[in-house]
TrEMBL record:
One of its GO terms (biological process) is protein transport. Residues 8-22 have a biased composition (Polar residues). Residues 1-35 are annotated as: Disordered. The keyword Glycoprotein does not apply. It is found in: Early endosome membrane. Keywords: Endosome, Lipid-binding, Membrane, Protein transport, Transport. This is PX domain-containing protein. It comes from the Eukaryota. It comes from Coregonus suidteri.
Amino acid sequence: MAERAVPQENTGINTGIQQSNDPYPEATAESLDLEDSHQQGACGYDLCPGPSSSCMTTKELQQHWRAVKHRLKPVKLLFEIPSARTIVQHLSKYVVYQIVVIRSGSYDSKRVSVERRYSDFVHLHQQLLEDFSEELEEVILPRKLLTGNFNPENIWERRLALRDYLAQLYAVRCVRHSRHFLDFFTEPEQRRAHGLLRAGQFGPAVALLETVLELQEKMGGWQSPVLLVPTLCALTVCQRDLEEPESAFTMGQRALPTVRRYGLKRYRGPLLEMMVDLGYQLGQPVAQLQEELVQVRDAERGLVSFRSLKELVVQEFT
């Protein structure tokens, strides 16, 4: 087994995550470029901060360099809006548009989609204008219709116009780096999933979280794995409570290397604790995990209050 060097606190990422309630405090614009890794962004961002090699085992270092090679491949996102449907609820009536996100540059076999209303596009546009008004001078949001909103022909035309609008946004580097752009595709599902998790409805929560995970992987998780950690931890909790320890352990295994590598102190102790418990259930060797957990807890003693992974997860998106 590869020998691990002593972890360094400064890993190139701000480890202030411990004090933040934001589940994605490190998922900044610098780490979201899908096409031009290791270049200085057009908006002045230093893209793709890398982890410290001193924190990585030989296996993790190999995985890191494979990921670096993958980043150099030309990858773009394509957006399709193949359908729309009208929803009637009590006194309200509105149209939702199905958005399919496709990653080009390699075969994308996983079809993942979300539904958004026109008002969601309006909210996104307003947020982006606050930060990138100059860059978006020539990007026009399809206009609001005063009449005929539910006319099939108008819905068809707006569907095409919104598809082109997303493509224009993605073509602006600063926009596709932005947190607002990523949140447009993932945050509503994240909030619903965490609401279901808090209500003990773990099955429906898993379905939504899996959609979020697929989108995050398409939109930058393969390049900025920190994005995936909160979602992987939420899936670990849900699958543990669904009495699916194998699936829960697998999700935890996916999250733990990134938590170590980027010094995500907020998650490390709680995740290790759950991994040890799951490992015992599955008959997995856990001595190394236990030793690491003891070291983490000793280092945290007197500095922070200990919380379980579930307690950490349920507080997100509140």
